[in-house]
Here is the input.
Amino acid sequence: MPKEDGIKVVADNRKARHDYFIEETYEAGLALTGTEVKSLRLGRANLRDSYAAVQDGEIFLYNVHISAYEQGNRFNVDPVRIRRLLMHKSEILKLHQKTREKGYTLVPLRLYFRRGKAKVELGLAKGKHLYDKRDEIARRDTEREIERAVRGKIDRY
Here is the structure.
């Protein structure tokens, strides 16, 4: 995984940007065990179908699969256990209020290391309808065709 500005990206949830409108993004720390950190450093994580939720004033991450560390033996934990996220209380309360509104959810966008600490980027998301997804695909296709046409004209001269 390439490093940029001290950030090593472990996992990226590209499907989230396809399925949701991301309105705001937040950074949160992860409370992990030692073997989970070692497994993450090897890039063994999957964010598909994962989400975050506020519960009793704390925020938790659900359905994130971090594979067991091969040399971890008895110290390995359940790969899809619920993980606590580390955020300021004011941010958690703000997110709790926003997710109580109809249609909003918290979706992890990427999992990465910043200065040696495991972080997750959360997106405050609203679900897309099928026609929104089709519009997005059509828009990207037309942009691609325009770019090709412009490059083709430049090459001819």
